[in-house]
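Subgroup meeting minutes
Present: P.N., E.W., G.H.
Scribe: E.W.

1. P.N. recapped why we're keeping a running log of single-chain structure predictions: easier to compare across weeks, and new members can see raw inputs and outputs side by side.
2. G.H. added today's entry (243 aa).
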Amino acid sequence: MLTATGLSKRFGALVVLSDVDFSVRAGEAVGIVGPNGAGKTTLLNILSGTYPPSSGRIAFRGTDVSGLDAAARCRIGIARSHQIPRPFHGMTVFENLLVAARAGGGLRGRAAEQKCLDALGQCGMLKLSNRPGATLGLLDRKRLELARALATGPDVLLLDEIGGGLTDGEAAELVAIILAIRARGIAVVWIEHIVHILVQVVERLVCMDAGRIIAEGDPKSVLRDAAVIDAYLGPSAAHAAVG
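Output recorded in log:
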C-alpha cells in the first residue's frame, strides 16, 4: 500500500537516512525500533510528507506521491500522530477532531461530525468531547492524537512513540485501542521504544541504526538478531522483550 524506495535524507553534510527501502501492506502493522538518532522519526516525517526526501521515491497505492506535502497526503489517506501531543489548546476535544475531519479528511457537515464521533468512541473519549484540549492528562492527550488522526479517515496510520511516558496500565489501554484500529483494516506503522507493548500489536519489526535498516522480519527473530542486540537492545533487554 505504502512503499518507499531508496530514501535518503541529508541536512547539509549530515546524512540522516541512507538508501532506505520500506513498505507496509494494507491492514498490516509494522513496528520500527532503534537507538536515538537512528533516523526513525525522519523516516516517518518523509512518509507523511513533513520532509521531502533528498533522494528516493514514495508510492501510495501504486501512485508516486513523493512531491505531495503532508496536507495532501493526509487527504489521500496517510495520517500520523506526533511524539509530543499537539492539541489545539483553545478548542474542545470534539472541535480538535472536527478540524481534522474537515481539513485533513475533506469531510463536511454531518459526515464530518459522524466521523469525529466514531473516532472518539473508538478511542474511549466520548465523555471528554466537550473538555478543552489543554486540560487533558498525558494518556488522554495521546488518545486525542490517535482520535484526531482517525477522524481524517486514514488507510495508513503513522505513530511516533505514542506509548512514551505512560504507565503499564495506560500502555495496555493504548494497545487495546491500536488493536481495534487494526481490526478495522487500517495499516499501522509504529515507532516505539517500549518494545514489549509494540510486539503485542505488530506482525513485522524493523530495526534501524545510523540511518539504515539493519534487520527486518518476525518480531521475535529481529529481537534475537545479533546486530539488533549490539546496536540497540543489549542482552538483558532483548531477553525481556522476547519473553
